[in-house]
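The following block was generated as part of the benchmark described in Methods. Ligand: 4'-deoxy-4'-aminopyridoxal-5'-phosphate.
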Amino acid sequence: MKEQGKIWMNGKLVPFKNAKVHVLTHALHYSTAVFEGIRCYSTPKGSMIFRLPEHVDRLFSSAKMYSMKMPYSKKQISGAIMKTVRNSTLKECYIRPIVYYSYGMLGLTPTSNKIDVAIACVEALQEYTQAGKIRGTRCRVSKWLRIDSRSQPMQAKAASNYANAALARVEALTEGYDESIMLNYYGKVAEGSAENIFLINDDKIFTPPLSAGILPGITRDSVIKIAKAERLSVTEKNFDVEDLYSADEVFMTGTASEIKPVTEIDNKSIGGGKPGRITLQLHKIFIDVVSGKDKRFFKWLTPV
Ligand code: PMP
């Protein structure tokens, strides 16, 4: 990550190096933070933010699930995101807004602590290894289960979900894989450590429903809408690891990873070990969409 530009903190743009928090910040001790990952793409009509209103809506709904009172309106947060991106002068970037309980009381109860908001934008997030990009992603089914939604609201993009995800990610990387696939408490496939997951059989697309305890991914939603516009069948349904092993194609979706083909799971090759035809078709359309080349979905882009 290049240490450059300015970070928006509670209404002010501050130099990168000065964007600091106190060591007694509540969120640092108790994970009381919600955040977003948003992307800005370069298009022939200038830089555009992909699905900005949906990301801002999800940030607010994540905060609501944790009873955090947002100190700014959606309009103010969208404006602050635009201001931060414009100030960065980056044509393409990854944007990270975060809302967190600041310092004050050190005990567990966060509610008397101030809620702070910061927005950073960085050049790119390396979620996709170069090797994975060339040969497709090699996954391992994690021994760590995705946290159950009866334990905490998994539809919130909350920092507290990510220690669990990081365990799974590190486990996969340590064992020589690119990414992990996490199951839920029912033994059904949930999602990757930072991506949603899809499988394709006989040209039909399947993905776990939100009730599997997954993040309502905005890329997931985009892929479902793109596939339907292409008259492909998409069904939300629970499935087992065995369904992944025997699938014709598997791919993952996320803001940082976009659409990444999975070509191996637990050392079993998927679809002959090569990215599948429909995965590549969806990937091509997705790239056209985010680069402003597909008129059908131009409405998903907000000019900076
Ligand atoms: N699941 C998890 C656990 C994630 O962290 C992410 C990345 N935000 C996703 C799915 C994909 O969501 P999105 O497409 O909105 O980036």
